[in-house]
User: What shape does this take?
Amino acid sequence: MKTLITVLLTLAVVLLLVEGYVYSGAFDVAADRPHGAFVQWLVQTTRERSIAVHAKDIAVPPLDAPMLIAQGAAEYAQMCAGCHLAPGVEDNEFRQGLYPPAPELAKGADAQPAQQFWIVKHGIKMSAMPAWGVTHDDETIWSIVAFLEKLPTPISGTALPNTWAAGISSSPATGSTPAA
Ligand code: HEC
Assistant: This one.
């Protein structure tokens, strides 16, 4: 009985301390100052475990069809290259202040296709990564994953869909709109 009371009292004190810390406003939410080591570990591990567990039962369809990859390339140019860049897309001011930063997906990704599908569909809380499943069906999202699987060399030797080129030249990333 005594032990139980001690445990409950300790728990109550810990909860009060956590609450006090939250209300004190001491935690710095500024995006231009990185997390300390503990919070970084907490956020990263929570994110990795959540994605691994939620994506574990997703069956990956065949992703090799050139049409599917081309469709994904067009979607990527429109919706993703601004944050994640792409071959031929220059860095831009918009993405540089993101925290956590948006990784350059053409430089290789840690996530497996099923995990990429889950991330693209559901997004990642407390980051700038949107949930594209709100506006796009699963088939479209798989086309994007098919394209991601081919990065960074989806383009060599294949004709680019017009929308890819259009997406790149109209993106603020390049600033290289051809003179009309
Ligand atoms: C507004 C910016 C933004 C846009 C637009 C965006 N993302 Fe992201 N994305 C992010 C950020 C930021 C992260 C990192 C989140 C984190 O580390 O928790 C991320 C993470 C990811 C990851 C996980 C990468 C890894 O291996 O860790 C994938 C995959 C991804 N995005 C794909 C996409 C795709 C595909 C699109 C377009 C359909 C897209 N994103 C559009 C900001 C964006």
Remarks:
- The CA atoms of residues 89 and 174 lie 6 Å apart.
